[in-house]
């Protein structure tokens, strides 16, 4: 939504390149959350099978569409190639963050299931030690 607000609605900041950093950060988080969402949803099997590819296609397409809208529909905004590149690079970093936090998408397990699995394994260890 922020990408569609008129440019004069934002405060003027004298930091060069801050706009690109904001694009980069937003799309990093966006792509990370898309990958997690793709893995957790159960309605669309293709999103679970190819969560990273789907997230890249969605986030990069969304970024390009927003830039095109800014250049054609919104009078006070302009399309910028540097913004589209920052969006795309942010999407790549979102994937890297996913790998750092969760590891491979094939081995992904939600946090709440990890604790449940850990409790089951601990309970099995206690039961096996009692039966010995």
Summary of the model, kept short:
The chain is mainly α and 132 residues long. It has one domain. The protein contains 5 helices and no strands.
Fold blueprint:
Blueprint: H1 18-40, H2 45-49, H3 51-72, H4 81-102, H5 111-131
Would you write up a description of this structure?
This protein has 132 residues and is mostly helical. The chain has one domain. It has five helices and no strands. Helix 1 packs across helix 3, helix 1 packs across helix 4 and helix 3 runs antiparallel to helix 4. It is elongated.
Helix/strand-derived category reads mainly alpha
Count of discrete alpha- or pi-helical segments spanning 4 or more residues: 5
Counted up, domains total 1
| Approximate shape | elongated
Mean pLDDT: 79
- Helical residue percent band: over 70%
Q: How far apart, in Å, are the first and last alpha carbons?
A: 61 Å
The amount of beta strand, in percent, is under 5%
Throw out a few tags for this protein.
132 residues, mainly alpha, 0% strand
């Amino acid at each position: 939504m922020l990408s569609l607000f008129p440019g004069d609605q934002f405060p003027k900041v004298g930091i060069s390149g801050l706009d690109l950093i904001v694009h980069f950060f937003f799309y990093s988080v966006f792509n990370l959350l898309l990958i997690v969402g793709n893995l957790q949803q159960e309605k669309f099997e293709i999103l679970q099978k190819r969560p990273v590819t789907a997230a890249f296609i969605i986030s990069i397409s969304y970024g390009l569409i927003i830039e095109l809208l800014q250049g054609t529909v919104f009078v006070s905004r302009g399309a910028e190639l540097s913004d589209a590149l920052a969006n795309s690079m942010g999407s790549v970093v979102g994937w890297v963050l996913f790998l750092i936090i969760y590891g491979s998408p094939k081995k992904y397990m939600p946090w709440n299931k990890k604790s449940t699995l850990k409790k089951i394994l601990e309970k099995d260890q206690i039961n096996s030690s009692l039966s010995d």
